[in-house]
Amino acid sequence: VTIGVPRETRAGERRVALVPKVLGKLSARGATVVVEAGAGAGALIPDEEYTAAGAEIGDPWAADVVAVVNAPSEEQIGRLRSGQVLIGFLSPLTDPQIVQKLRGAGVTGFAMESIPRISRAQGMDALSSQANVAGYKAVLAAAEHSTRFFPMLTTAAGTVKPATALVLGVGVAGLQALATAKRLGARTTGYDVRPEVADQVRSLGAQWLDLGIDAAGEGGYARELTDDERAQQQQALEEAITGFDVVVTTALVPGRQAPRLVSAAAVEGMRPGSVIVDMAGEAGGNCELTEPGETVVRHDVTIVSPLNLPAAMPEHASELYARNITSLLELMLADGELTPDFSDEVLARSCVTREEEGS
Ligand code: NAD
User: Fold this and answer.
1) How far apart are CA 185 and CA 336, in angstroms?
2) How many Å is the Cα radius of gyration of the chain?
3) Which atom of ligand 1 is nearest to the CA of 173?
């Protein structure tokens, strides 16, 4: 079986689906990897590193399996043929047309977003691996834009108090944001609508902000709030946010617009020089004044909404993603043959379209 690794073409993307380090595991299972020339360039991996690890340089779209980071463009889908397997972030919930087109082309697609969040599949959980990168980077962006120190400083010129940082939405990205802000010396607080994360927040040395709303939904995700709950939450947050130098927001509900947590009034209530990093920009943003992809200053508060944060750390983001893809491939690859067992929950749930279904 051959596995193709294309060069990613989405604007600003610097990640690559497989890195040389994982190729040994794939060749041990009888797979040959075909890398497009320059596929690793964004992550600073030259073609020679791939060939030294046993890969060929060639047309990745002709391979039996194509591994990508981002869903393919229309033109790229046009290069796929019936019976091929495509693995990557295929956005089945946010852009269902892509899956439709893959189905039309007779391609079997596995969406990394749809890997079940169960213990056995943790090694394949690309949402988590990339959220970790994003949570870390978001805090660095906050520090970059802050007019104040994160750590407490005791200097000959006097003492500086530590910054206070609030993380709204404490899933994987939020936990990493709390840990990173703590490492930089901030006093940290976490908030979520899933009360079960309170202990995880405290274990990172952060305080837990309790606003009395329980919106734990299915599968460990949050559900959408009712209108009443949303109003109550915005009001309570408006008061709570005032005291923080830094707010990092990560709140998401799968397949929905990001919940609005931070109102314009809440921003106005913050101290001048404070920073909000809104990690939910791709889903519309958690803050009313967010402009996705932009950095704006409103009421003397800097609101940063970076898109595709994992691409800003392409080396480690690619390495972690490549391990996720490899773990998934190992589940269906033996003796050079690809034999997915669709009675396996992980494959059944991540498979978003299958060749036999036809168009
Ligand atoms: P996510 O990116 O979907 O959402 C981020 C956070 O936003 C979540 O914690 C969510 O509860 C929160 N949120 C949503 N609406 C909110 C609101 N109105 N106000 C405040 N917060 C709100 O989440 P994620 O990081 O993908 O994690 C989702 C779940 O998956 C978690 O339970 C996590 O522990 C679990 N998980 C399990 C595994 C595993 O067992 N293999 C791996 C990773 C994650």
Assistant:
1) 50
2) 22
3) 25
CA dist 261 and 281 (Å) reads 13
Q: How far apart are the first and last CA of the chain?
A: 25
Give this prediction's pTM: 0.95
**Residues in contact with ligand 1 (CB, 6 Å cut-off):** 117-119, 122, 125, 127-128, 131, 168-174, 192-194, 220-222, 225, 250-254, 259, 261
Residue 3 bridge partners (DSSP): 33, 65
CA dihedral 206, 209, 212, 216 (to 10 degrees): -50
Length of the chain: 359
Report the separation in Å between the CA atom of 171 and the middle of ligand 1, taken as the mean of its atom positions: 4
Quickly count: other Cβ atoms within 10 Å of residue 294's Cβ: 12
Nearest Cα to Cα of residue 248 among 159, 169, 185: 169
User: Are 20 and 52 in contact, with CB atoms under 8 Å apart?
Assistant: yes
Q: How far apart are CA 356 and CA 116, in angstroms?
A: 23
pLDDT band at 358, cuts 50/70/90? very low
Active site residues: 117, 122, 125, 128, 221
Query: DSSP labels for 115-173?
Result: S--SGGGGGG-HHHHHHHHHHHHHHHHHHHH-SS-SS-EEETTEEEPPPEEEEES-SHH
pLDDT at 357 > cutoff 80: no
Q: Which helix (H) or strand (E) holds 34?
A: strand 32-35
Q: How far apart are CA 95 and CA 230, in angstroms?
A: 26
* pLDDT tens figures, 253-277: 888 899 999 999 999 999 999 999 9
How far apart, in whole angstroms, are the C-alpha atoms of residue 318 and residue 260?
Answer: 31
